[in-house]
Automatic annotation (TrEMBL):
UniProt cross-references to InterPro entries, sorted A to Z: NAD(P)-bd_dom_sf (IPR036291), NmrA-like (IPR008030), NmrA/Isoflavone_reductase-like (IPR051609)
Protein name (database record): NAD(P)-binding protein
Matches recorded under Pfam families: NmrA
Molecular function (Gene Ontology), one example: oxidoreductase activity
Originating species: Lentinus tigrinus ALCF2SS1-6
Gene3D superfamilies for this protein: NAD(P)-binding Rossmann-like Domain
Keywords tagged on the record: NADP, Oxidoreductase
Keyword NADP: yes
Keyword Translocase part of the UniProt annotation: no
NmrA-like domain ranges (all copies): 12-240
Length: 310
């Protein structure tokens, strides 16, 4: 690693699960827009011959088989981005943490990339994804105790690809918007490429000794904090349809029903968090840290997502 100034900071990055839903975006962005900072990008993959892996290899990625020892892929790395599902086998999680402790990278991004679950209030019926994330964080802290590795939990709200979902109360096909409260409720949503750019920027800031201390452990970023009314208006404008209906539901009643009959679909819980204003990060985010004044990229908006899917 070398770091004369942030502009010239360079390091070796390993992206675990780099061909996944989010991982593919992280891999492409590191290998293209941020390549000068990360000349070596290693990616773990179960089957290196699949087309996604080959696409990344053509961009210059070094491919490692997930079944091989994590020590090999992590040897000498500065940045580790974990984009694996939280449901991988417990033994693999254990081996990974032990290997990270041995490799002692400068920075490790846990596989987070969603809601800030520290705010959750689902006592006794929290979705299993967040229960796993709590355990993974505790195990990570235990395994990396005493190392220099900076841990980062990046919260980005919803992925753009997981946003127009009736379970969230956003049904653009039927043109009906159903918040658990007023239509002015806002929800954080970030395009996957912008999440990837934020990871790259946080990695660079962490590698640069002049800025490393400005990077917190818990980081919220948000491409847009958009209200149900704004989504409705944007859909009308982009699709040329009449403004849809805002159908308000009762938050307490919905939450009681969820407690009585817990759902396996995490979006049913995110809808509650939205009703409780826990995923409106308008006034509390690190956008300025990763992308000051949008000088590095323009955050994509719901209007952009809708126009691109036309
Ligand atoms: N905020 C949101 O809206 C949102 C939405 C989705 C996910 N997330 C979060 O983003 C993170 C990444 O999720 P994702 O959906 O991007 O992951 P994913 O696509 O389900 O998986 C990533 C990659 O992990 C590898 N993989 C899967 N199962 C594995 C196993 N058992 N052992 C080893 N490798 C395995 C696969 O790669 P190969 O098959 O190529 O080896 C897969 O492409 C998670 O923490 C998740 O909670 C957030």
């Amino acid at each position: 690693m070398s770091f004369p100034s942030s502009k010239q900071v360079t390091g070796t990055a390993a992206i675990l699960g780099g061909t996944g839903d989010l991982g593919m975006h992280i891999s492409r962005i590191f290998l293209t827009e941020y390549r000068e900072h990360f000349p070596t990008v290693r990616i773990t993959i179960r089957e290196p011959s699949i087309p996604k892996a080959q696409e990344l290899a053509k961009l210059g990625a070094e491919l490692y088989k997930t079944s091989d020892s994590f020590d090999e892929v992590l040897s000498g790395v500065d940045v580790v981005v974990n984009a694996l599902p939280t449901s991988i086998p417990e033994e693999a999680k254990k081996q990974l943490l032990a290997a990270i402790a041995r490799a002692n990278p400068e920075v490790y991004f846990l596989s987070e990339f969603g809601a800030d679950w520290r705010l959750n209030e689902f006592d006794g019926y929290e979705h299993s994804e967040w229960r796993r994330k709590r355990v993974i964080l505790a195990n990570t802290e235990a395994a990396l105790q005493g190392t220099q590795t900076k841990r980062i939990l990046l919260f980005n709200g919803n992925f753009a690809g997981w946003f127009f979902i009736p379970a969230l109360g956003i049904d653009i096909e039927k043109n009906i918007y159903s918040p658990l409260g007023p239509g002015s409720l806002r929800i954080a949503v970030t395009a996957e490429d912008d999440i990837a750019r934020s990871i790259a920027r946080l990695a660079i800031l962490s590698l640069d000794p002049t800025t490393a201390s400005t990077v917190p452990t818990y980081v919220r970023i948000t491409g847009q904090n958009v209200s149900y009314e704004e989504i409705r208006d944007t859909v009308a404008r982009v699709k040329g349809v009449p403004k849809g209906e805002i159908k308000t539901y009762d938050l307490d009643e919905y939450k009681k029903n969820l407690q009585a009959k817990p759902s396996t679909f995490i979006m049913d819980y995110v809808r509650v968090l939205t009703g409780e204003r826990k995923v409106d990060w308008t006034d509390d985010n690190a956008n300025e840290l990763v992308n000051p004044g949008q000088s590095l990229w323009r955050w994509k908006t719901v209007e952009d997502f809708l126009r691109n899917s036309q």
